[in-house]
Amino acid sequence: MTEITRLSDLDATPHANVFPGSEPKTVRLSLAAGERVDSHRHPGRSVVLAVLDGALELDLDDETHALESGDVARFDGDRAISPRATEPSTALVVLAPTAAD
């Protein structure tokens, strides 16, 4: 089965679930300049964050990473994450279940 979604169709929802009920969970994140997502974790997930446009400061635990359009970050969901837009930004976040050992 193939599902196709146009990201611009999700503009009304800043944290839109791109394919509801599907794994891996995929979220389109839209932030205004200066807007921050409060620190949180995604236990049991591996996270990929791709900046589609704009620029973000990505806080992971006690580290801050400057990301701009075209950058992709991958990290463990057990880390505390808090992205902040330094300009209007859109990112695609994929939250994949971590494989059991």
Automatic annotation (TrEMBL):
Note down the stretches annotated as region Disordered.
1-22
Q: Where is the Cupin type-2 domain?
A: 29-89
According to the record, the signal peptide region is: none
One Pfam assignment: Cupin_2
Q: Quote the protein name from its UniProt record.
A: Cupin domain-containing protein
